[in-house]
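Below: protein 1.
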Amino acid sequence: MPRTGRLLCAVCALVAVTAGAQVTRTSEYLEHMDTDGDGRVSLADYQAWMRYGFDQMDRNGDGVLTADELPGGKGRPVTLAEHMARIAATFNRQDTNRDGYLDARELAAPPQK
């Protein structure tokens, strides 16, 4: 993943955490991301949580983060579709048992390369 993409994912996660509710444990992430309360996070849950940061950074609401909206004020534009694809790729790397969901253990682990 290009540096801009990694940085954007990290910043979006931070924005989602600080704007929603401050979480400090994996169980709290699971509780906030798990919209249906089944004890696991689907791709849709994960993308919804991570999209919040993108939306907050997209000040003009056009679905594209331009350099002035990106961390550090530089980088190539990033579309919402690109961002969602990166999030899906991260989710898929974290879903080590390939069941289409992240449990607490998978959510706490760093994404596999």
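Below: protein 2.
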Amino acid sequence: MARTSLRTRRDLVSLGDHVRTWRKIHGLTAQLVADRAGITRTTLRAIETGTGTVSLENTFAVLRVLGVADAVVGATDPLTTEMGRFHAERALPQRVRVPN
């Protein structure tokens, strides 16, 4: 297994801090969020602290409970960036022809 880079570690910790803050903003206990997401409290703790190897599925289950999953998915949409739109436009054909 590859080692986790320092940058990735920091990002995981930051994401976990944000998840914890969203949970508190909603006034939800860790146990309630874990139950609603269908995960254990230990798994939620791992997400909130940025430790362990939590599955993306479990992370998104928590994000969905907190109401921010759509924002996270939207933030990764390449067509929301200038670079993504530029490359998408380059990949589109100049003309579309009707098949014979």
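The mean pLDDT is 92.
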